[in-house]
Amino acid sequence: MNKKKSIRQGLPAALLVLSAAISICAQDASGGKHNPRPQQAGSAGANVENKSPEVAVKYSYEFLQPKFLIKRILLEHDESGRGTVAFERLNEETPIVEKLELSPAALERIKSAWQALQFLESQTDYQASKQFPHLGTMRIGMQRGERKRVAEFNWTNDANASALVTEYRKAADQAILIFDISIARENQPLNAPKLMEALEALLKRGGLSDPRQLLALLQDLSTDEHVPLIARNHALRLIKKIQK
Asked: Which of 213, 147, 217 is nearest to 186 (CA)?
């Protein structure tokens, strides 16, 4: 009986030791699952550090002809197509500056022309052998970081340079037309019919950067009772033509 009693008294102590050992093993196993591997953490940090920042690119187009009704245009934008267009009218010295946002379709055409020119890597002279200064002088420019180049010509036989200035001229004409329509609605509603005619003329000859950008403005114009009815009806017809 004494021997059995001794065995029973020793069992609790043995169980305590065994329980403590199991607890320590469980903590070690749990800690191993949650601690990240040093090599993985270091690798992720290296990838972040080695990633170089993107260099912003700026584009510009300028037109000059002191005898034209619009004697100067300066259009500037970033890679997203956002920027400004400034223009000066004949007998006026203060430029009008408006915000610009090229549509995705127009921006794609413009970027395609820039890429085809390889502008910053090239030293090509885009001026044609014949001079046409009476048509105005054009300047196209690009800047990427410290690299910058501006090319000037009044006429070119280079297909990509010609496509580029044509797209910029369309964007400028559209921006100026939007400005004139807005002014007419606010201060000179009687000018609205002539502006609708000018818009339709540009639309017919493909002279707008992206006519769909005008839909919201034309819709507002068609319901503006301050504008002559003939202009409102014309706006509705133009909406249908653009939507086709």
From this structure: 217
Helix (H) or strand (E) holding 101: strand 96-101
**Rounded to whole angstroms, what are the CA distances from 160 to 73, 107, 109, 156, 223?**
20, 15, 10, 10, 41
In this predicted structure, what is the pLDDT of residue 10?
Answer: 46
3-state secondary structure of 84: strand
Q: Which helix (H) or strand (E) holds 161?
A: helix 159-186
d(CA 214, CA 15): 85
Residue range 129-147: mean pLDDT, rounded? 96
Stated pTM of the model: 0.78
Domain ranges in the chain are 57-243
Contact by Cβ (8 Å): 75, 63: no
User: What is d(CA 105, CA 24) in angstroms, rounded to the nearest whole number?
Assistant: 66
